[in-house]
Write the structure tokens for this entry.
Amino acid sequence: MSFQEKLCSELKKYEDVIIYGYADIGMCVLDYIIDMETSIKIANYSGRVKFFATTNQKRESMRVEQKGIKIKSIYELSEYADKALVIIATQERHHKDIKKTLDELGFFYRLPILHEDYCVLRECVENHKMIVGNHIQQYHLNHQIKLNRLKRKVSKGKTVKVFFMTHDAAVFGYSSVYHAMEKQELFEPFIYVVSRRDVGYRDFYSDVKKDIEFFESKGYRVINGYDEWGNPKDLHELNPDILFYDIPKLYGSTGNFYNRLDQLNWEYLTCYVPYSLLMVDSFFYHYHTECIRETWKFFLDTNDSFKRVLADGEFSGFNTVLSGYPKLDEYFNEKDQFPDNGNPIVIYAPHHSLGVSNNFATFDLYKDIIMELVKKHREINFVFKPHPLLPFQIKAREKEGRISFGQEDYFDYLHEWNSQPNGMCVTQGDYIKLFKKSYCMITDCGSFIGEYLPSLHPCIYIFNPRKEHQDEVYTRLAKKILDTYYITRTKEELESMLQKIIIERIDSKIEKRRQLLEREFLNIGHAGEYICNYLKRSIED
């Protein structure tokens, strides 16, 4: 058995992996694991790498992570001793002392990287980087050809056709970019509605039509991505010059070709604006997929995100632009206001991740407590704003027998909430105006951590008591924001915080939120205009 086969075999056995050593050898091991999973697509192995470890009990290094993987002293990780695989990735002369330390702490599952093993992995990693580098270079040479062609078109007085491809109105975040382009003679913007659930989903087309009706009601120019029978249209016939997308894995390599991002990145000048603020620490998904590197321009949301890409992204973030997050521009939209009757508004926004890998969702634990609050306090308006995938996850968990209520119970819950004189359900887009008008939000969602901050209102953030080490899954910026919110970890803490924040209206952290917003976020109210002007300069210069 080769060492590569041995490494793959060992990785299959463990859900938690610690790489002991974060310098050259450790990084080589991590890069090999990532290369392996992205090239043969057999498992999410990089997601199993939880930490880089060192021996020092009090680590003095300024570096706290490498490529999104936290660096910790092995003494801080003793709770993983009986379940984690430790890959010893240091020079061999240190192995004896490291094994002694691991013995003392009870880490018995280990895989040492010998010099000859490192040489094999290094050769594989370097070869893969060369292949990927050439591949990415081809994409960006092609982008330059397309840009030159577009410049010639514009020089003849023609407009630039821009498609904002959206898969769900509930997470639509291009509004301010679209409206900025409407004001420019150069651009001709359209909303291009597709679905990421069009293969094998019987009712996907009804969701598409609902989204189209929503956008048309808001005055957008909309193009349906499907014909009247639900067959995908040929995007070549529609012929956009620039194509925006908002999810880094619309379809994978085995999906239908018409919306596969590797195809779209090759055919069009693509721009990636994430559908949510990047609050959960999944470096490779948010910053480093092959499709993100293939895209023409990647518009980043915050200073923190930009620094991470420059530090750890392949090619030092060569296609990234620090623009600010256009979805947050809606906080400054004075024309479109959320309706209210003068009573304070409290939002309940549960996440969808019931029983799946990230497992933030607590809806099954606390839905009844929140409903009691709605019924008890008629003087407060309560808005139910669930993640759009929540009913699908409930249906899946019900089928598996892992939850005691099902999709019909969920729809009954929505009906009961809506039937309250002070209750309302919001399941489609435009939730920023709701955030702006609200007094407080109760949530366990990841992206809402950042998206709610510009409201400057208090947020009760619910940790899932069933999820271990939840504190460690967030980005540095998310942790800073959570420090200005009110975190609950138990039913008793939740009930206490509901009383304190919502009923007694005690909020001692507003100034901390204000200072953090000013320090970390940029171009709020102007990000869409910034992106529009950036593209205009790129085309006309």
The first helix runs from residue 3 to 13. Confidence is low (pLDDT under 50) at residues 38-44. Residues 369 and 495 are 8 Å apart (CA to CA). The chain is about 40% helix and 15% strand.
